[in-house]
Structures are given as C-alpha cells and as structure tokens.
Amino acid sequence: MEAILKGLGLLLEWQNILLIFGGVFIGVLVGALPGLSSPMAIALLMPFTISLDPVASIAMMAALYCAGTFGGSITAILINAPGAPPAVATAFDGYPMARNGEPGRALGLAAVASVFGGIFSLIIFIAATPLLAEIALSFGPVEYFGLSIFALSMLASMSGKSSIRNLIAGCIGVLISTVGVHLATGVERFDFGVSELTEGIHFVPVLIGLFAMSELLTQSSTLNDAVRVMSAKSLKLPTFAELKKLKNLILRSSGLGTFIGILPAEGSTVAAMMGYNEAKRWSKTPEKFGTGHDEGIVGPEAANNAAAGGAMVPTLALGIPGSGTTALILAALVMHGFRPGPYLITETPELVYAIFGAMLIANFAFLGIGLAGARFFSLVTFIPKRFLWPSVFIFSLIGSYAYSSAFFDVWVMLISGIVGFFMMRHGFSPAPLVMGLILGPLVEETFTQAMVIHDSSFFQFFESGVFLVFMVLTVISLSSPFWPKIFKKKK
Amino acid sequence: MSKQKQKLNPATNLVAGLVHKIDLIVASILIIGGAYMYYEATLFPAAPNILGDTLNADIFPKMLIVLMIILACIIPFEIRFMPEKIAKIDKDRSVSLEPITWKTIVLLITLVSVAEFLGPMVTMFVTAACFPLVWGEKNYVRIAIYSVAFPLFVYFVFNKLLGLFFDPGVLQYLVKPTN
Prior knowledge:
The complex is a heterodimer. By secondary structure, chain A is an all-alpha fold. Chain A contains 20 helices and two strands. Chain A has a two-stranded antiparallel ribbon. The mean pLDDT of chain A is 83. By secondary structure, chain B is mainly α. Chain B has two domains: 3-93; 99-174, no CATH class. Helix content of chain B is 67%, strand content 2%. Chain B has nine helices and two strands, in the order αββαααααααα. In chain B, helix 2 runs antiparallel to helix 3, helix 6 (99-118) packs antiparallel against helix 7 (120-134) and helix 7 runs antiparallel to helix 8 (140-161). The interface between A and B is large, with 59 and 70 residues.
C-alpha cells in the first residue's frame, strides 16, 4: 500500500504531471508526423532525461508510448500513411471512412477504442506484473537463460519481411553487446585498438541511429511526394448507442491485444493485425470491411493500445521486452540505474505504480488532446520534410553527444544509421537488432553463470523443468512462420 | 522485359536456378564479416587461473558467430521456400538509390566529421542552413529564419532548461574570454 501511495504520489507533483503531458503531446505528435515514430522519439529523448527525476522520466516515456500508438492512427486515417506500424490496420477502414466525409468520426472511434483497450490492459498490467515477478524470483541462471533464448526466438515471428533475417539481426545485436571489456574475465573484446570501444558500444546512439537516421535516409528519396490530407476540424466521439453495439468487439480486441503484448517481442503491430482479422471474422457484416466500417477501426485500435500495457508486463516483471518500443524503455530503465526484472518490484515498487498512473493519465490525455487538437495534428502533416528531417538530425546529433559528452557516440549513431538503412533495404528490421542489443548482456551473463554452476555441461540445463518448457516454446516460436504453409499443404 | 520487371521477377534473380543473386552477395558479406569476427575472437586471451571456474571471453561470441553464419547460409535459399516474402524484399531494393540519398549520406558524414571541431552549436547552425539547401529548398528567407531560430530554440531548451553543456568548439577562438 505504501508503494502504491508513493508511486501515485509522485504523479501529483506538478513537474511530473507536466512531463507526462509532455510525453503524451510528443507521442501524439510523432505518431501523427509521417516518418517519425514513438520508438524514435523515445530513443531521441533518452539522453536528455538523464538530468531529470528517473521515475518521472520513465513515466513520461511510458506515456509517450501509449500516446504514440494512438497518434499513428491520425495519419493512418487522414492520409492513409500510418504514422506508426501498429496503425497499419487502422488505415484499412479509417481512410475509407475519412474519404466518405467522416474523418472526425473515424478519429473519434479510434480514440475511444484506444482508451478502452489501454485501460483494460493496464488493469491486467497492475495485477499480473507483481505476480509474474514473484514467479521469476524463483528463477535461477538456467531458467533466465531459457527465458532470454525464448524471447530472442520470438524474433522469428516478429513483424518483418523474413524470420531468418530477424534472427540474424538479433544475433548482430547480441554480438554488438559483447564489444568492450568482458566483466567476468577483464578481457577486451572486439576493440580493434580503438580506446573508446573498450567501454563497449553504448546502446543509446545505436538506437538513435537505427530509428532516426535510417528513416531520414529513407525519407530523403520522398521529398517531393505529394500528400493528400483529409482535414479534420474536430474529433467526433461515438454515441453511447454505437459504443453499446461495439462493446463485445472492444472487450475481445482488448483481451487479445493484452495477451499478445505480454508475449516477448510481439507488440502492438501484431496485435493490431490480429485485432483487425478477428474483428472481421466475428463480424456480422464482414463484407463491409475495407469500405469504412466502424468495426474495422475499433478492432485494431483497441488491440494495439491494449498491447502497449501488456508489453510492459514482461518488461518490468522479467526484464524481457514485450515489444520493440518496450526494449527502448528497458534500455532507459538501465540507463537510469534501475534493475529491470523481479527485483524492480521488490526494490523500487513505486516505479511500477508510477508507470501505471502515467499510462492511465496518458490514455485519457490523448483523448483530450485529440478532441482539442485534431485540426492542429492534421495541419502538422504539412510541415515540409526539408525542415522536419534536418531538425530530427540535429536532435539526433545533440542526443548522441549528450549521452556521454563524446563525439565518438555521434559516429556510432551515424554508422548505425547508414548500416541500418542498407540493412532495411535488404529485409533486415531494426527492432530485432535492438532486442538483441538489449537482451545480449542478460543472455551471456546467465549462460556463463549456468555453465559454471553445471561444470560446463549444457545438457544438465535440461534437468530444470522450467528450462525445458522454455525450450519447447522456443521450438514452437521458431517453427511458427512455417505453420501457414504446412496447414495450406495439408488442406 | 524491362530492367525493373527483370529485377522483380524471382526467376531472373536466381543463379543457376538455385539461389537468389543479391541474397548470395548479402550472405557472403555476413559470412565473411562473421569469419573475420571469429578470427578476432580466437585472439582473445584465456581467463587467468586466479579467476577459477569461468567461461573464457571468446566462447559466447564464437557460438553466436557460428549461429549467425549458419543462418546466413540459408538466406540465398529463402526464395525457394518463402518466395512471396523475398518478392516483397526485391520490390523494395529494385528501386535504385536516388542521387539525393547519396548526397545526404555524404552531407551527414561531412557534418559529423567537422562537428567536433566546430562544436555542437555551430554545427547546428551549419546543419540547419545546409540541409534544406542540399535538399532543394528554394525559399532562402525560410532557410535563413530556420537556420537561426531552430538552433537557438534547441540551445535554449537543452542548455538553459535541461542543463546540457554545449562544448564551445570553434567559438572558443572567436569569443575572447573576459577577465
């Protein structure tokens, strides 16, 4: 009870409320601006939050995450260009509804569905996180190694063009995390004679490079692309009768989204697509999907925002990111000196409740911001790219430099961006690389500890029932991309 | 068949009807890079005896590199069991990089190269002025306003509000210290 009061009490300070509302505003803004995304915004904000209160900084990023998921639906509906990947499914019916002369109604449905989905998942989040953390307290190095391998194997089914390339990107991320001094033996690894590399490669500049710089290079070739924007004067909330008709769909999509969010590595994008598909499957009028149907907006929006809350569960309870964006929040936790995992609940429980409170506030705040500022957010899409993206570069440069006041990090940021751009062209997604980079130290540390405990005998790992379960789940997740083909052949 | 259509047609991307041409190059780069990293890992010294039972520093990276090389070997053959996904990737990379993208890369490298000498503040002004110009902006008044206002805004927010120190860079030679 003391932790709940302390955590929620932190949110009553005006500076922290300001930070949370700032996070919501930035989240909706970056979500609305094509090319920008909440992972990018979090990566750019991270170095600047070093001097701020740690709990408030993390709460702000969590609020940004919530709001960004909704913000992406603004451009999805108004210009058929989802501002964030989770909003792809929203565009299927959101843009047709806007074209039919009801952009405000489409935004209203998206906003309300997002709020319900977000609140549903937050209830699950606050109930499940301490329970899961308690189970994880009994995990030893073997069990944690199994869990981290399972989390990395989920990269195979992560959204992207190729499972093999996702796994390779994950391996590259883990390999990057091995650069620097090996803590167990003091050996300098992969420094190539560069003194700055003995400290390792800081993840913040890599994140900024992968998300911001690679997107800047992608956008450089679309400077003259014309954009047709449906102007929305205001958000139009659905009536009570409309909501009553949609309540079963909202509950179903919220439950589905929360569950998918809890799975490691899966996130809002997968949740949104499944939310849309399930909404169509259960609908009495599936033929109307794609023409501007209410259910086609409500299904994915409730699911994608529910996934945001769900993804925080494994991130905080286990230290395993539930999605690409929560991998960044995990990185921010580490940067601020927190220890993600079960010890977070025992050592700093007020942080969990502060995040819960921040996300709760964010879920209502973006509704308010959407109501008051729909016209503003539709107008920001007119910001010329020739000024928008140099601004992103300036923030990236300052952010990378600010992290440890070293220009070496700026080079890391730039090289990550250029390499990331070419990797994306060949089907390698940045999110798996980020997951690998964040999980890498955990994987190696638990593997080393487990091998020492079991006298370097890997087969003894299988004596742990929990490890066996994770290995079975790993095999299932690695083979899941091939199931549609196998089932198709059998039919 | 046009060059664009040739690139998109999976059949024309195959070498000897077996493997994807471009993915073969991608896999080769990964394998050669992995092999070099593996060789580097063999040069890591063993853990000193005083540390007792522990894994040597090279074990984990070597396992990872071997896994990565095995996965990289599969890439050229992906077209055979996931042709639709490879077709999507081919669609993206069939579009040649535009000259503006190469110019942007050169500009970014140049700006970062001089950033340490110029300092963050001057680099921001130079970036805000050069970027829109290189990207074809013709409204010089807008560029002038942006190249002054935006860096000043960033300086105010991050230096004055957030307390971030901005290295003076070249400004230290231009502004004489007062005694």
